[in-house]
Amino acid sequence: MIRIKHWTKNPSGQVLLATLLFCFIFVTLFIGLYKSGLLYNAKERAIRASNLTALSAGAVYANGLQLVRLTNVALLLAAAVDILAIAAVLEVTGGLSLILPSQFKDLNTRKLVQDIQSILFGINQPVGIYPLLISDETISVASQNGLKSTFPSFNPLSWSLPIPPSPIMIFNVTTLGPGLAQAIVPNMALKFRTANFFLDTLPKPKKIYSYKSGKNGKIYTFNSDQVEPAPNSQNEGQMRVKKGVGLEGEGYFVTEQVSAGLSKLNAVINLANLLAGLQLDVTDRDIPAVHNIFVYASYPTSIKDTQNNNAEIQTLSQVNVSGTGLAAWNVSDPPYQATLASTDPVELVKQLSIQTLLSQALSSVKLPSISNIFGTVLNGP
Amino acid sequence: MALKKSPKPKGQALVEMLLVTPLLFLLTAGAIQFTVLFQARSAFDKACGEAARQYAANQLKDSSAITDAVWNDMGFYRSYFDKQSLNISTQTPQASIADTFFNAIDTLGPLASEIKSYLINYTGQTWIVTICCTPPSLVAVIFPDGIPFQSQLTVLKYPN
Q1: Among candidates A37, A45, A59 on the partner chain, residue whose Cβ is nearest the Cβ of B34
Q2: Can you give the pTM of this predicted structure?
Q3: Can you tell me the distance from the alpha carbon of A130 to that of A120, in angstroms, rounded to the nearest whole number?
Q4: DSSP state of A363
Q5: Which of A107, A166, B77, B127 has a 20 to 30 A CA-CA distance from A175?
Q6: Could A146 and B98 be called an inter-chain contact, meaning their C-beta atoms sit closer than 8 Å?
Q7: CB < 8 Å from B in window 279-298 of A
Q8: Fold category of A206-258 in CATH
Q9: What is the extent of the structural domain holding B42?
């Protein structure tokens, strides 16, 4: 202390101390600059790695959708074979009767193709082979792009879910309802088209409402344009005759009547149920078709954080896969294309409650909060 | 007897200022140049990523097109790099489990291999991109031979 006092009173000492202070400030400045520069570069590399990994996932996904088209062509050929077989039998019987001979058996080669499609693409199955391939390739590319990869392998004999898993792929989540846990399971948002889709274009019967007059016992009927909702504690679906449009008995409560065409409707419903059981080709699960993958990953850096751990940058990238359709007649169309999409993570989290999804899936693991994660990197193409 | 006034410290502040100003200027310029260096590094990484995206979109057909794309995507920061030193070595990505399976198909014969190449129509590349950065003047004193930058990335594209 005495020595410092001595130096502060001495002009040359003052200069020396000022110089030391000056150097300290600049060294601190330079270290800060250096660290922030490293972090900035790491952030850019993390975004790049995440985007390229998502694009790669999209490429494999797009190839899968082309495979769906090809298998639909195979299905069409199988159906043709079955029809030819039936035609051959009809030829034998002279085509006089639609009742097939008892010895005839439907070849049903369609079923074989549909079973293959089901296993390959995971339709009506917990998981398919091709969606697993997408995951495998994505994890491999993520690892090679420097993203944290905690999946050792997909060896089915020794496979166990690493905790916490990274990267996490979220499949077609934007069109999935509130039960989001299944979005983590690899899927391609596909389903079998059923024959009842032909009925979708049929006009729907109009509802008819009526009330019986207490004065003359006459029944007045109204269509849905002439009534309005009048909910009450007893009946939330209560309707009444519209007021102020000059209708007879305006404001009176009405009840919904059975339409005259209900018997026809029942027939249509029965037919629809029948056709619903008849599987056709593979098509998109959603209308309009949506195929996308989110890749949520961590990029480890050599920069130490406040707890002296190596800092990790969290990234989120979205890739959309789009094309003209999956039907057999689309097979010669341009191939599906994967494109990066702008991701607004905060909005996405609000909409889909990924935090809830993750906490459900990984209840035993403490992850950084999503708001912190997305505060780190707002990723975009 | 009148007290004799002590002489004013004429010029002392000026001398101190003259001594400190170059140092201050040097450090400030150094800080700015370091920032530029980091931005050049970042621009290089970004350019590699942009070129990889163009490759994934089938816009780049050969290695010279890839090299040109990386160079052009660096924009303003090209002045800090030597184009002659830009080198891109491409490799096949490390084998995934799927690759192991697909390679096994190849052993079944040329027909199986042909069918596989028709069905599995995506491919990928790993790039190791190296370039020599010519740093700004002050940083060049520390690194007279330039600073080698390297960037590695992997991307798959479809269709092949």
Answers
A1: A37
A2: 0.76
A3: 6
A4: T
A5: A166
A6: no
A7: none
A8: Rubrerythrin, domain 2 (2.20.28)
A9: 16-157
